[in-house]
Specification:
Blueprint lengths: L2 H10 L6 H9 L5 H5 L7 H8 L1 H4 L3 E2 H18 L4 E4 L1 H4 L4 E2 L2 E6 L9 H11 L3 E7 L6 H6 L7 E10 L16 E10 L5 H9 L2 H15 L2 E2 L4 E3 L4 E2 L5 H7 L13
Parallel strand pairs: 4-7
Antiparallel strand pairs: 1-3, 2-4, 5-6, 6-7, 8-9, 9-10
Helix pairs in contact: 1-2, 6-8
The chain binds cytidine-5'-triphosphate (CTP) and manganese (II) ion (2 copies).
Cytidine-5'-triphosphate binds next to helix 7, helix 10 and helix 11.
Amino acid sequence: MHKAAKWRQLFTQIFGVGVRTADRWYREGLRTLDDLREQPQKLTQQQKVGLQHHRDLSTPVLRSDVDALQQAVEEAVGQALPGATVTLTGGFRRGKLQGHDVDFLITHPKEGQEAGLLPRVMRHLQDQGLILYHQHQHSRWESPTRLAQQSHMDAFERSFCIFRLPQPPAAAVGGSTRPCASWKAVRVDLVVAPISQFPFALLGWTGSKLFQRELRRFSRKEKGLWLNSHGLFDPEQKTFFHVTSEEDIFRHLGLEYLPPEQRNA
Ligand code: CTP
Ligand code: MN
Ligand code: MN
């Protein structure tokens, strides 16, 4: 591996550090995590937290963590807005046993009810002492036809979080590097979608990244339709397809339904 690439890999593992920042630090002569710790003025708040919890965050998240997190998020969402739902997405929905984070999609069966929900959810989670860090991103509203054109990024409201997940005492035994840890830091993505876009958001956020890229390419090249996490658009008719499930989307694309476990490509 090229020398600079080695440090790029080390630095970009830190939550909140991208390739450009990693390369700049390398040019500035920084080489180790301790170098960074000695230069806190160079770090954003997000990066400081990422560095602080680096060991936990570079430890794979386990299926047992996911269940505990889902329970906590469901409770907060239920308190913030009765009837709102939480769905596991990302790698764990595809049946993976480990992951770098946990992804949840939140919606409400009545269109529009999801507006303003996320800050309330975050407040409940914070009151429970479950949040070490979170960064809220507002939904970036654009005209539906502009949204339809975007092939990778989506515009949903979201929160990039680091949870403080309590650990059962049993998890402390057996070769853990921190035998007495009563909690661990876990990256969680919370995304909110209105119910009309929910099946597209679910499909997009379930991944894998490669599978979604291929599906969107197939849709455009073979069917002449634009697929993303907001919808499926016919550019000739200038219409959106109405769907109520992932199965509907596969059907509109003329494809056999693939369950999440088969989207690990
Ligand atoms: N995704 C997205 N927009 C983003 C980030 C992610 O649409 N800004 C989608 C991607 O399609 C990705 C899925 O959400 O497949 C989950 O993203 P991520 O958590 O990064 O990957 P996982 O497949 O869950 O794998 P990991 O175990 O590394 O978390
Ligand atoms: Mn994930
Ligand atoms: Mn994620």
